[in-house]
Amino acid sequence: MESLAVAGTLRGREGEGTRMDKVNLGRAFASFAEHWSPRIVGDVNDMQVKVAKLQGEFVWHHHDQEDELFLVVTGRLVMRFRDREVSLEPGELIIVPRGTEHQPFAPEECHVLLFEPRSTLNTGDMENERTVRTLERLA
Amino acid sequence: MESLAVAGTLRGREGEGTRMDKVNLGRAFASFAEHWSPRIVGDVNDMQVKVAKLQGEFVWHHHDQEDELFLVVTGRLVMRFRDREVSLEPGELIIVPRGTEHQPFAPEECHVLLFEPRSTLNTGDMENERTVRTLERLA
Protein backbone atom coordinates (compact mmCIF):
# COMPACT_ATOMS: atom_id res chain seq x y z
CA MET A 1 0.00 0.00 0.00
CA GLU A 2 1.45 3.33 -1.00
CA SER A 3 1.33 6.40 1.16
CA LEU A 4 -1.44 8.89 0.51
CA ALA A 5 1.13 11.42 -0.61
CA VAL A 6 2.25 9.14 -3.39
CA ALA A 7 -1.22 7.86 -4.12
CA GLY A 8 -2.45 11.40 -4.55
CA THR A 9 -0.25 11.78 -7.61
CA LEU A 10 -2.04 9.63 -10.13
CA ARG A 11 -1.01 11.55 -13.17
CA GLY A 12 2.29 11.32 -14.97
CA ARG A 13 3.25 14.91 -14.38
CA GLU A 14 2.18 16.61 -11.25
CA GLY A 15 0.27 19.84 -11.43
CA GLU A 16 -0.76 19.53 -15.05
CA GLY A 17 -4.40 19.80 -15.79
CA THR A 18 -4.66 18.15 -19.18
CA ARG A 19 -6.03 14.72 -19.86
CA MET A 20 -2.78 13.81 -21.58
CA ASP A 21 -1.27 12.66 -18.31
CA LYS A 22 -1.18 8.98 -17.70
CA VAL A 23 -3.06 7.11 -15.00
CA ASN A 24 -1.30 4.36 -13.07
CA LEU A 25 -3.95 1.84 -12.07
CA GLY A 26 -1.96 0.52 -9.10
CA ARG A 27 -1.74 4.00 -7.63
CA ALA A 28 -5.40 4.65 -8.38
CA PHE A 29 -6.45 1.53 -6.48
CA ALA A 30 -4.06 2.35 -3.62
CA SER A 31 -5.69 5.74 -3.12
CA PHE A 32 -9.02 4.51 -1.71
CA ALA A 33 -10.39 1.60 0.30
CA GLU A 34 -14.19 1.60 0.01
CA HIS A 35 -15.98 -1.18 -1.77
CA TRP A 36 -18.69 -0.59 -4.39
CA SER A 37 -17.76 3.07 -4.74
CA PRO A 38 -16.35 3.67 -8.24
CA ARG A 39 -13.85 6.48 -8.83
CA ILE A 40 -13.57 8.25 -12.18
CA VAL A 41 -10.11 8.17 -13.77
CA GLY A 42 -10.90 9.54 -17.21
CA ASP A 43 -13.38 10.49 -19.94
CA VAL A 44 -13.47 9.13 -23.48
CA ASN A 45 -16.06 11.11 -25.41
CA ASP A 46 -19.33 10.55 -23.50
CA MET A 47 -18.02 7.49 -21.67
CA GLN A 48 -16.18 7.28 -18.39
CA VAL A 49 -13.35 5.10 -17.20
CA LYS A 50 -13.70 4.13 -13.55
CA VAL A 51 -11.90 1.99 -11.02
CA ALA A 52 -13.70 0.13 -8.25
CA LYS A 53 -12.96 -2.26 -5.43
CA LEU A 54 -15.57 -4.97 -5.02
CA GLN A 55 -16.09 -7.43 -2.22
CA GLY A 56 -19.11 -9.59 -1.49
CA GLU A 57 -22.43 -9.44 -3.27
CA PHE A 58 -23.93 -6.39 -4.94
CA VAL A 59 -27.63 -5.82 -5.67
CA TRP A 60 -29.38 -7.35 -8.68
CA HIS A 61 -29.97 -4.55 -11.17
CA HIS A 62 -29.93 -3.59 -14.81
CA HIS A 63 -29.20 -0.43 -16.78
CA ASP A 64 -31.90 0.62 -19.24
CA GLN A 65 -29.63 2.41 -21.70
CA GLU A 66 -26.07 1.58 -20.80
CA ASP A 67 -23.79 -1.29 -21.69
CA GLU A 68 -21.19 -1.82 -18.98
CA LEU A 69 -17.67 -3.25 -19.29
CA PHE A 70 -15.87 -4.88 -16.35
CA LEU A 71 -12.16 -5.68 -16.68
CA VAL A 72 -10.68 -7.60 -13.76
CA VAL A 73 -7.28 -6.22 -12.68
CA THR A 74 -6.75 -8.27 -9.50
CA GLY A 75 -8.86 -10.86 -7.70
CA ARG A 76 -11.84 -12.72 -9.12
CA LEU A 77 -15.25 -11.48 -10.14
CA VAL A 78 -18.31 -13.65 -10.61
CA MET A 79 -20.92 -12.00 -12.80
CA ARG A 80 -24.25 -13.59 -12.07
CA PHE A 81 -27.06 -13.54 -14.59
CA ARG A 82 -30.53 -14.94 -14.01
CA ASP A 83 -29.73 -18.15 -15.88
CA ARG A 84 -25.98 -18.63 -15.31
CA GLU A 85 -22.81 -17.01 -14.06
CA VAL A 86 -19.42 -16.12 -15.55
CA SER A 87 -16.23 -16.19 -13.49
CA LEU A 88 -13.56 -13.64 -14.43
CA GLU A 89 -9.87 -13.71 -13.57
CA PRO A 90 -7.31 -10.88 -14.00
CA GLY A 91 -6.95 -9.98 -17.68
CA GLU A 92 -10.52 -10.99 -18.48
CA LEU A 93 -13.38 -8.68 -19.33
CA ILE A 94 -17.11 -8.94 -19.79
CA ILE A 95 -19.60 -6.54 -21.32
CA VAL A 96 -23.05 -6.61 -19.75
CA PRO A 97 -25.52 -5.38 -22.38
CA ARG A 98 -28.15 -2.79 -21.44
CA GLY A 99 -31.35 -4.31 -20.13
CA THR A 100 -29.64 -7.41 -18.75
CA GLU A 101 -30.12 -8.14 -15.08
CA HIS A 102 -26.86 -8.88 -13.32
CA GLN A 103 -25.34 -9.21 -9.88
CA PRO A 104 -21.60 -8.75 -9.44
CA PHE A 105 -20.15 -10.99 -6.73
CA ALA A 106 -16.55 -10.91 -5.51
CA PRO A 107 -15.66 -13.86 -3.26
CA GLU A 108 -12.62 -11.88 -2.09
CA GLU A 109 -11.60 -8.29 -2.79
CA CYS A 110 -11.46 -7.68 -6.50
CA HIS A 111 -10.20 -4.62 -8.40
CA VAL A 112 -11.94 -3.76 -11.64
CA LEU A 113 -11.72 -1.19 -14.40
CA LEU A 114 -15.11 -0.06 -15.69
CA PHE A 115 -15.97 1.53 -19.06
CA GLU A 116 -19.50 2.84 -19.28
CA PRO A 117 -21.54 5.85 -20.36
CA ARG A 118 -21.31 8.89 -18.13
CA SER A 119 -25.03 8.47 -17.37
CA THR A 120 -24.54 5.09 -15.67
CA LEU A 121 -25.78 4.85 -12.07
CA ASN A 122 -23.95 2.10 -10.18
CA THR A 123 -27.14 0.42 -8.98
CA GLY A 124 -28.99 0.87 -12.27
CA ASP A 125 -32.76 0.66 -11.83
CA MET A 126 -32.40 0.03 -8.07
CA GLU A 127 -31.88 2.84 -5.63
CA ASN A 128 -30.74 1.97 -2.17
CA GLU A 129 -28.01 2.65 0.36
CA ARG A 130 -25.42 1.48 -2.16
CA THR A 131 -26.38 4.02 -4.79
CA VAL A 132 -23.58 6.55 -5.39
CA ARG A 133 -24.83 9.60 -7.29
CA THR A 134 -21.68 11.72 -7.32
CA LEU A 135 -18.44 9.89 -7.97
CA GLU A 136 -15.08 11.11 -6.80
CA ARG A 137 -12.64 11.89 -9.59
CA LEU A 138 -9.07 10.64 -9.23
CA ALA A 139 -7.75 11.97 -12.52
CA MET B 1 2.09 -18.70 -27.00
CA GLU B 2 -1.09 -20.71 -27.16
CA SER B 3 -2.06 -22.89 -30.07
CA LEU B 4 -4.44 -21.44 -32.61
CA ALA B 5 -7.05 -24.01 -31.59
CA VAL B 6 -7.05 -22.60 -28.09
CA ALA B 7 -6.63 -19.05 -29.22
CA GLY B 8 -9.71 -19.36 -31.43
CA THR B 9 -11.92 -19.75 -28.38
CA LEU B 10 -11.88 -16.30 -26.92
CA ARG B 11 -15.25 -16.38 -25.26
CA GLY B 12 -16.13 -18.03 -22.00
CA ARG B 13 -18.54 -20.45 -23.57
CA GLU B 14 -17.96 -21.71 -27.05
CA GLY B 15 -20.70 -21.37 -29.64
CA GLU B 16 -22.68 -18.75 -27.80
CA GLY B 17 -23.48 -15.59 -29.65
CA THR B 18 -24.29 -13.17 -26.87
CA ARG B 19 -22.02 -10.43 -25.62
CA MET B 20 -22.29 -11.85 -22.12
CA ASP B 21 -19.36 -14.16 -22.72
CA LYS B 22 -16.06 -13.08 -21.33
CA VAL B 23 -12.97 -12.14 -23.29
CA ASN B 24 -9.58 -13.37 -22.14
CA LEU B 25 -7.02 -10.75 -23.19
CA GLY B 26 -4.12 -13.23 -23.23
CA ARG B 27 -5.96 -15.44 -25.69
CA ALA B 28 -7.02 -12.47 -27.76
CA PHE B 29 -3.41 -11.31 -28.13
CA ALA B 30 -2.25 -14.88 -28.86
CA SER B 31 -4.67 -15.14 -31.79
CA PHE B 32 -2.91 -12.70 -34.13
CA ALA B 33 0.58 -11.43 -34.86
CA GLU B 34 0.33 -8.28 -37.02
CA HIS B 35 1.39 -4.95 -35.68
CA TRP B 36 -0.75 -1.80 -35.95
CA SER B 37 -3.84 -3.79 -36.88
CA PRO B 38 -6.43 -3.47 -34.09
CA ARG B 39 -8.96 -6.25 -33.50
CA ILE B 40 -12.39 -5.58 -32.04
CA VAL B 41 -13.21 -7.54 -28.89
CA GLY B 42 -16.43 -5.82 -27.84
CA ASP B 43 -18.90 -2.95 -28.06
CA VAL B 44 -19.99 -0.68 -25.23
CA ASN B 45 -22.81 1.50 -26.52
CA ASP B 46 -21.26 3.40 -29.47
CA MET B 47 -17.71 2.69 -28.39
CA GLN B 48 -15.49 -0.21 -29.25
CA VAL B 49 -12.94 -2.15 -27.24
CA LYS B 50 -9.97 -3.23 -29.31
CA VAL B 51 -6.69 -5.03 -28.81
CA ALA B 52 -3.58 -4.19 -30.80
CA LYS B 53 0.07 -5.18 -31.00
CA LEU B 54 2.40 -2.27 -31.57
CA GLN B 55 6.04 -2.21 -32.51
CA GLY B 56 8.12 0.66 -33.79
CA GLU B 57 6.84 4.07 -34.76
CA PHE B 58 3.37 4.86 -36.06
CA VAL B 59 2.38 7.91 -38.11
CA TRP B 60 1.71 11.31 -36.56
CA HIS B 61 -2.05 11.86 -36.66
CA HIS B 62 -5.04 13.19 -34.79
CA HIS B 63 -8.72 12.31 -34.59
CA ASP B 64 -11.12 15.20 -35.17
CA GLN B 65 -13.99 13.87 -33.09
CA GLU B 66 -12.69 10.96 -31.07
CA ASP B 67 -10.90 10.68 -27.76
CA GLU B 68 -8.77 7.57 -27.64
CA LEU B 69 -7.75 5.48 -24.62
CA PHE B 70 -4.61 3.33 -24.60
CA LEU B 71 -4.09 0.85 -21.75
CA VAL B 72 -0.75 -0.97 -21.79
CA VAL B 73 -1.11 -4.69 -21.05
CA THR B 74 2.46 -5.82 -21.78
CA GLY B 75 5.56 -4.00 -23.00
CA ARG B 76 6.11 -0.25 -23.03
CA LEU B 77 4.43 2.46 -25.05
CA VAL B 78 5.79 5.93 -25.59
CA MET B 79 3.07 8.37 -26.58
CA ARG B 80 4.71 11.29 -28.35
CA PHE B 81 3.06 14.68 -28.47
CA ARG B 82 4.42 17.71 -30.29
CA ASP B 83 5.83 19.18 -27.08
CA ARG B 84 6.65 16.14 -24.94
CA GLU B 85 6.21 12.41 -24.56
CA VAL B 86 4.68 10.09 -21.97
CA SER B 87 6.07 6.62 -21.30
CA LEU B 88 3.54 3.97 -20.28
CA GLU B 89 4.21 0.66 -18.53
CA PRO B 90 1.77 -2.24 -18.04
CA GLY B 91 -1.19 -1.15 -15.91
CA GLU B 92 -0.96 2.45 -17.10
CA LEU B 93 -3.38 4.23 -19.40
CA ILE B 94 -3.55 7.49 -21.27
CA ILE B 95 -6.44 9.25 -22.95
CA VAL B 96 -5.50 11.26 -26.02
CA PRO B 97 -8.13 13.96 -26.45
CA ARG B 98 -9.68 14.58 -29.86
CA GLY B 99 -7.75 17.07 -31.94
CA THR B 100 -4.40 16.29 -30.30
CA GLU B 101 -1.59 15.24 -32.58
CA HIS B 102 0.13 12.10 -31.34
CA GLN B 103 2.55 9.42 -32.46
CA PRO B 104 2.53 6.06 -30.67
CA PHE B 105 6.02 4.52 -30.44
CA ALA B 106 6.77 1.05 -29.06
CA PRO B 107 10.51 0.44 -28.56
CA GLU B 108 9.73 -3.31 -28.37
CA GLU B 109 6.48 -5.15 -29.01
CA CYS B 110 3.73 -3.74 -26.85
CA HIS B 111 0.18 -5.05 -26.31
CA VAL B 112 -2.52 -2.48 -25.72
CA LEU B 113 -6.23 -2.34 -25.05
CA LEU B 114 -7.96 0.50 -26.89
CA PHE B 115 -11.25 2.11 -26.02
CA GLU B 116 -12.60 4.55 -28.58
CA PRO B 117 -15.69 5.51 -30.60
CA ARG B 118 -16.73 3.08 -33.31
CA SER B 119 -16.03 5.81 -35.87
CA THR B 120 -12.31 5.94 -35.06
CA LEU B 121 -9.93 5.31 -37.96
CA ASN B 122 -6.55 4.05 -36.75
CA THR B 123 -4.56 6.66 -38.68
CA GLY B 124 -6.99 9.50 -37.92
CA ASP B 125 -6.63 12.34 -40.42
CA MET B 126 -3.82 10.54 -42.26
CA GLU B 127 -4.54 7.88 -44.84
CA ASN B 128 -1.70 5.68 -45.92
CA GLU B 129 -0.62 2.05 -46.17
CA ARG B 130 -1.18 1.65 -42.45
CA THR B 131 -4.83 2.67 -42.57
CA VAL B 132 -7.12 -0.24 -41.67
CA ARG B 133 -10.72 0.45 -42.68
CA THR B 134 -12.35 -2.84 -41.72
CA LEU B 135 -11.23 -4.38 -38.48
CA GLU B 136 -11.41 -8.08 -37.73
CA ARG B 137 -13.68 -8.97 -34.84
CA LEU B 138 -12.37 -11.47 -32.29
CA ALA B 139 -15.42 -11.51 -30.03
* Biggest interface and residues each: A-B, 41 and 41 residues
- Uncertain runs of chain A are 1-18
Tell how many strands the DSSP assignment of chain A holds.
8
Global outline of chain A: globular
Please outline the major beta sheet of chain A. 7 strands, antiparallel
Using the CA coordinates, give the radius of gyration of chain A: 15 Å
Order of SSEs of chain A: HEHEEEEEEE
In words, what does this structure look like?
Two copies of one chain form a homodimer. The first copy, chain A, has about 140 residues and is mainly beta. Helix content of chain A is about 5%, strand content about 40%. In chain A, strands 2, 3, 4, 5, 6, 7 and 8 form a seven-stranded antiparallel sheet that branches. In chain A, a hairpin with a 4-residue loop joins strand 5 (about 75-80) and strand 6 (about 85-90). Chain A is globular and about 40 Å long. Chains A and B meet through strand 1, strand 2, strand 4, strand 7 and strand 8 of A and strand 1, strand 2, strand 4, strand 7 and strand 8 of B. Strand 7 of chain A pairs antiparallel with strand 1 (about 25) of chain B, so a sheet runs across the interface.
Keywords:
8 strands; homodimer; mainly beta; 139 residues; 2 helices; 39% strand; disordered N terminus; seven-stranded antiparallel sheet
Task: Set down the secondary structure blueprint.
The structure is a homodimer of 139-residue chains.
Chain A: H1 4-7, E1 23-24, H2 25-30, E2 39-44, E3 47-57, E4 68-74, E5 77-80, E6 85-88, E7 92-96, E8 103-117
Antiparallel strand pairs in A: 2-3, 3-8, 4-7, 4-8, 5-6, 5-8
